[in-house]
Design goal:
By secondary structure, the protein is mostly helical. Helix content is 58%, strand content 2%. Among the domains are: 1-76, Four Helix Bundle (Hemerythrin (Met), subunit A) (Up-down Bundle); 191-256, no CATH class.
Amino acid sequence: MTAFWILAPVMVLAALGILFVRKAVHAAMLLAVVMVSLAVLYLALEAPFLFVVQIIVYTGAILMLFLFVLMLVGVDASDSVVETIPGQRVTSIVAGLLLGTTLVLALGQVTLGTAVGLDEVNSGGNVQALAQVLFSRWVFAFEATSALLVTAALGAMVLAHREREVKVTQADLAAQRMRDYAESGKHPGPLPSPGVYARHNAVDTPALLPDGTASEASISRVLAARGTVRSAPAEAGRIEKFTGGTGPAATAGVEVEEETE
């Protein structure tokens, strides 16, 4: 009883601190205070197994894992005030008031007394008595809970799993271009842009191949589909008319037929 009156105010103050502190790391540390105090109360009630589980599993493993995640990821104080769900703050306030009212009404009907039967139950040992009850009367509930926890762990692993993406390197891209060229004849490099070795930079002047002929890859597909592409030798007369000359530069390009209204 003495341990309860000493630790109860500490637990209440730490629990209130969890609600009002601004930093998540401080909240985790205050939660550790609550858990350790609860473990001491288990020990005072002659439940050493729950005392050890509370210290090793909850405080030493789960809570420390939360603390490490907070320290590695980092949570700013401004992030905790951002509502990710609409109406989250109002819903939490209403739920907190309902829970507080329920606790007040429940505690108001509690009668203080001494525990009866602990010596008899723990006569063969607390751990042995707990195992006897857990694996005899409550064995079905224990196994069902175990299966549920294992299923939840597997589901979390499946949901968090991501297929590893293979990063494509420049060598892989070059090898793929050469395979496409060998299989379908696709040009392995970038297409030549219009105006190479041309008299002026315009769409109507295609790129020239080493033999002097025009590269079809540099001619716009729109112009070819509309049928407005004309060969320079075939339009030599019109080229001479517009350019006023008969040199090679005048017959090296592709004339585009002008559209009239």
